[in-house]
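sorry for the late reply, my laptop died twice this morning and i had to redo everyting from scratch. anyway the thing you sent over, i finally got around to it. pasting the sequence first so we're on the same page, its 159 residues, then the predicted structure underneath. double check i copied it right bc i was rushing
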Amino acid sequence: MTVKEFFAKHPSASSTAREWCEQYATMSEAWAACKRPDWMLWAVRAEENTDANMLRRIACRCVRETPLSGGRVVWDLLTDERSRTAVEVAERYIAGEATGADLDAAQDAAREAAREAARDAAWEAAQDAAWDAAWAARAAAWDAPADIIREVMGDPFAE
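ok and here's the structure:
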C-alpha cells in the first residue's frame, strides 16, 4: 500500500506522522524505518482487521523485553506478583489456556497492585528523583517496542 493510499484511507492520522511518512513511497518502507511505537500501534489499530490478541502479544513482549538501563527489562520493574501474573495470564489467554474471566481477574488484581504501588511511591520517593528515573527509563526504552512490534507483526503492509 502506498503512503498516499494509507493516509487517504485514514485522514485522522497526526500531521507529524503523515509528514514523516511522506518521505517513503510505501507503508512497508515507512514501517521498516519507523522508530515510534505509538505511530506503529496507531497504524495497526487503524486497520479494520486488527486482532486483539495480536495487541496483547505486543504488550506482553514489550513488558518482557523492553530494555532499561543496567541490563534490566520492564519485567524487572514488576515487583508485585499480581502484576507479573497479569502478564502471564494474558499470555495464557492468547494461547487459549486461560478464560476471559481469568484475564479480567488478573487485570483487576494488577490494577490494585498499581494503585497500592502508586500510593506507596508517593510517600517514599522524592518527586524530582521519580521524574528523572521515569524520563531515563522512557528514553532508554523508546526504540525497543518498535523493534518488538516489527518482530511480532512482521510487515502488515507487505504486498
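The longest helix spans residues 100-124.
thats about all i looked at so far, will dig more tmrw
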